[in-house]
TrEMBL record:
<feature type="domain" description="Thioredoxin">
    <location>
        <begin position="20"/>
        <end position="146"/>
    </location>
</feature>
<dbReference type="Pfam" id="PF21352">
    <property type="entry name" value="Zn_ribbon_Thio2"/>
</dbReference>
<comment type="similarity">
    <text>Belongs to the thioredoxin family.</text>
</comment>
<dbReference type="InterPro" id="IPR013766">
    <property type="entry name" value="Thioredoxin_domain"/>
</dbReference>
<dbReference type="Pfam" id="PF00085">
    <property type="entry name" value="Thioredoxin"/>
</dbReference>
<dbReference type="InterPro" id="IPR017937">
    <property type="entry name" value="Thioredoxin_CS"/>
</dbReference>
<keyword id="KW-1015">Disulfide bond</keyword>
<dbReference type="InterPro" id="IPR049299">
    <property type="entry name" value="Thio2_N"/>
</dbReference>
<dbReference type="InterPro" id="IPR005746">
    <property type="entry name" value="Thioredoxin"/>
</dbReference>
<dbReference type="InterPro" id="IPR036249">
    <property type="entry name" value="Thioredoxin-like_sf"/>
</dbReference>
<protein>
    <recommendedName>
        <fullName>Thioredoxin</fullName>
    </recommendedName>
</protein>
<keyword id="KW-0479">Metal-binding</keyword>
<keyword id="KW-0813">Transport</keyword>
<keyword id="KW-0676">Redox-active center</keyword>
<keyword id="KW-0249">Electron transport</keyword>
Length: 147
């Protein structure tokens, strides 16, 4: 028997229930029919962020970035590649702190880029600074998972 997990759709933010043994079988969203995992970081505004952090029953990795930040742009291609490797065990997301300024303040993001890992609605790890090697991002994220 496999457990059922709540997975928030990165496209329409609907909460889906997916059996854990179906995660890797390219599940679609029951609402918008798009892939729940498409190998790309999900761009989240504040409302979407709260849904993903609060409802996802898989860890959520978030890149806090901004368009004017050179190191953030350098990290973006590596983060894309890392997303493809970390899904579907993790939701990989990004927050544009210029658009979602509240979130930067709420989480006291002092420098960008900053990676933060959320499990069960709680931040469990944070790493400021650009990582430009996908393997470093994957290794860091996996090593921060509790238990
Ligand atoms: Zn959807």
């Amino acid at each position: 028997m496999s457990e059922s997990l709540q997975i928030v759709c990165p496209h329409c933010q609907t909460t889906n229930r997916v059996r854990s043994d179906q995660l890797a079988s390219a599940p679609d969203c029951g609402s918008c029919k798009k892939a729940l995992f498409d190998g790309h970081p999900a761009a989240l505004d504040e409302a979407a962020f709260d849904k993903h952090i609060g409802r996802n029953q898989i860890p959520v990795l978030v890149d806090f970035w901004a368009p004017w930040c050179g190191p953030c742009r350098m990290m973006a291609p590596a983060y894309e590649k890392a997303a493809a490797q970390l899904e579907p065990q993790m939701r990989v997301a990004k927050v544009n702190t210029e658009e979602a300024q509240n979130l930067g303040a709420r989480f006291n993001i002092r420098s960008i880029p900053t990676l933060a890992l959320f499990v069960g609605g709680r931040e469990v790890a944070r790493q400021p600074g650009a990582m430009t090697n996908p393997a470093d991002i994957v290794r860091w994220a996996r090593s921060q998972l509790p238990g």
